[in-house]
Amino acid sequence: MIQIIHLRHKCIGCNACIESAPNQWVMSKKDGKSYLRKSREKGKYFIVEAEDWEYDENSEAQKNCPVNIITVKKL
Amino acid sequence: MTKVEVMAPVGSFESLQAAIQAGADSVYFGIEQLNMRARSSINFTLDDLREIKTRCMAHGIKTYLTLNTVLYDHDINLMKSIIDAAKEADVDAIIAMDQAAIMYAREVGLTVHLSTQINITNVEALKFYAHFADVAVLSRELTLKQVKTIVDEVEKQQVKGPNGELMRIEVFVHGALCMAVSGKCYLSLHTHNSSANRGACKQNCRRTYEVKDDQGKELVIDNEYIMSPKDLCTVNFLDKIIETGISVMKIEGRSKGPDYVYATVAAYAKARDAALTGKFTPELGNELMEDLDKVFNRGFWGGYFLGKELGEWTDSDGSKAKRRREFVGNGVKYFPKIGIGEFRLRTGKLAKGDKIMITGPTTGIFEMEVGEMRVDDQVVESVGANVSFSMATPQKVRASDKIFKIIELIEIAES
């Protein structure tokens, strides 16, 4: 399993994470920030667990995020 | 001559209060992420709009909302909700770049100002945008003569905005300069996937660089900050700027602190008043420049106004200000009848005679010298970290206030 964490309020809506990992990320039409699918809200963070095979794509999203608000951890 | 507006950058309520106290005629600010300081400043949220408008209205200050990034299709809803909220809060204008934002603001009946991102350099471009906008900031890369030509042509050709009046021309008079053409830079996107045009500039230009050839031989360069321009400062020739006939003097710096906002607005308002009454002198210009040198700057140059090429590079990575501020503590409460404030020191040391600056979202900014301090009703000469103390203050202080110790850097160099 992996865990993906998103500090959502800092998002500038550049779309990079969605390009890298479209399974996990989607753009909110409401506020123009990306949303981590099926995530739970914990304070300012949005968190979700995913399968190991999704690690590479989401690591790329982490790497490409211009404001460094994505963390991907192996559990 | 009509009054020339001083427009202040505000990125927080502290800076907003500072702008009000220093006598700004208008303020500009960003909401949420669609502005050129999406990364660096603590942007206001939609809920803050009304509060900003209320505070400004009480002082007759105009409010301009910046919405000037590149917009994607997924941003359109947010763009519209920001503009709708601005309309509802009765914000005076939207500063926009993208045609989608310009068009929608007009649709709902909001005044449009052209952003520096449009980079207006000639009167024909103004005639095109006059269908939508009443005010335009000119490119930072123009000379005084070019600015004057545009202002004169607006009058001569009667270039009028949607409000039926001649377009008002704005220029940047102070603040950071970009090594590219007014922010249209792709360095940050290239190296960090972080677009300056989405307000996420990583400021590559502000770093030092080594220059090597393909054999690995390093070139000796006298300044490793090869592309970090000094900051624009025009206060010493502001009379010349005002003579061009511009209507608005814009100050850069939405991510800077209240001390910067206060000092810049106060200096330019004073220079403007002197210039408009024929009392501007080079001495006054130099005196005001000394005041500006106390707050964040990378060294000053007069920009492109005087026709010089960009060759004025800074030689430091951050501010060259003559003094800096150090956070030491915060306010706790205030006893209005006796004019005493209670504070808590969080770090460092504070002694009688120290110069301090108190800033807060409601307080704004003021400076004072530390007088008599008391701890548990006993007079003390100094206090250390995690100690609560009280002292008299010239104005009300609040729990949301922060205390900064002012450190004069010249003193450090001498001691």
Keywords, separated by commas or semicolons:
heterodimer, A: 75 residues, Alpha-Beta Plaits, four-stranded antiparallel sheet, B: 415 residues, alpha/beta, TIM Barrel, 2 domains, eight-stranded parallel beta barrel, six-stranded antiparallel sheet
Report on this structure:
The complex is a heterodimer of chains A (75) and B (415). By secondary structure, chain A is of the alpha+beta class. Chain A has helices at residues 16-20, 55-64, and strands at 2-7, 25-27, 34-36, 40-42, 45-50, 70-74. Chain A has a 4-stranded antiparallel beta sheet with strand order 4-5-1-6. In chain A, strands 2-3 form a two-stranded antiparallel sheet. Chain B has 2 domains: 5-176 and 230-301, Alpha-Beta Barrel (TIM Barrel); 323-414, Translation factors (Elongation Factor Tu (Ef-tu), domain 3). Chain B has 11 helices and 22 strands. By secondary structure, chain B is of the alpha/beta class. Chain B starts with a strand and ends with a helix. The interface between A and B is medium-sized, with 17 and 20 residues.
Portion in helices of chain B = 25-40%
Record the strand order, biggest sheet of chain A. Answer: 4-5-1-6
Largest interface, with counts of residues having CB < 8 Å to the other chain, equals: A-B, 17 and 20 residues
Fraction in helix of chain A: 10-25%
N- to C-terminal distance of chain B: 49 Å
Enter the CATH topology name of the largest domain in chain B: TIM Barrel
Q: How do the strands of the widest beta sheet of chain B line up side by side?
A: 1-2-3-4-5-6-7-11
**Remind me, CATH topology of chain A?**
Alpha-Beta Plaits
**Weakly predicted, low-confidence segments of chain B:** none
Low-confidence stretches of chain A: none
Top CATH class of chain A? Alpha Beta
Q: What Rg of chain A, in angstroms, do the CA atoms define?
A: 11 Å
- The H/E string of chain A reads EHEEEEHE
What's the structural domain tally of chain B? Answer: 2
